[in-house]
Design a protein that fits this description.
This protein is an alpha/beta fold and 278 residues long. The chain has helices spanning 13-21, 33-41, 63-70, 104-108, 111-117, 127-137, 148-154, 204-214, 247-258, 273-277, and strands at residues 3-7, 26-30, 47-54, 58-59, 73-81, 85-88, 99-102, 120-123, 142-146, 157-160, 170-177, 190-198, 219-225, 235-241, 260-270. The protein contains ten helices and 15 strands. The chain has three domains: 3-80 and 169-177, D-Maltodextrin-Binding Protein, domain 2 (3-Layer(aba) Sandwich), CATH 3.40.190; 85-160, Periplasmic binding protein-like II (D-Maltodextrin-Binding Protein, domain 2); 190-277, Alpha-Beta Plaits, CATH 3.30.70. It is elongated, with a radius of gyration of 21 Å.
Amino acid sequence: MTTAAYQGEPGSNSATAARALFPDGRELPCTSFEQALDAVTLGAADVAVIPVDNSAAGRVADVHHLLPESGLFIVAEYFLAIRFDLMGVPGATLDQVECVRSHVHALGQCRKILREGGWRTLVSDDTAGAAREVAELGDPRHAALAPPAAAELYGLDVLRPEVEDDPDNTTRFVVLSRDAAFAPHSGEPTMTSLFFCVRNIPSALYKALGGFASSGVNLTKIESYQMGAGLNPSRFYVEIEGHPDEERVALALHELRFFSSEVRILGVYPAHPHRAAS
């Protein structure tokens, strides 16, 4: 049985993603992304399911910063349609609501109903945690923005369903494991995640990335981040479409290594079907 760690409480979007990926597995809720990664590193969990991007809010977790130092590898990705319900204690009505609680990203993704209601907001550590807090308060003046599963789990009434601003709101999750488990080169759509550090020479980044352009390799993401407080060269987190064993990808990676002081592949995994539908 696979044990999947995630940040958040039961009923959260991360819990929903973990259950969809490992329906027969065991869930291990964690208070932070770092704790979820540590659970895998220390053997308390087999995998961690971590949100990295949201179509409305952008970056969710700093996986590009956390992952290289964790020693873990990306073995899968999953796209989850995000739905939020406004929920309150049993018997509560919208007219009674004065304060709405949720995670900061959820509040940002439900601005329309918050403006409509004119309610004040409180930031919680987690969407499902906000639902639990409302249930514990037992006060009809308090409501939560949380995934639909949280209402049933914490015994709340749905005051208004599907209140997210964007009906196409989607979060991308990655599955992290201690073992590399790179997907074989089978001709199926594949993603490769890596990070690199360029040499401290003029135009190093331009030259390092030139191989992807000349080889026709699509970069779906590139992010930079600084390590330490000094003037160290930036590190870059990159995701590309393709497998390292493909000739065009191998050529691009060869050129990248020539202009980089360090290149590390963090994962080679099947592309989720959502990419083809986008």
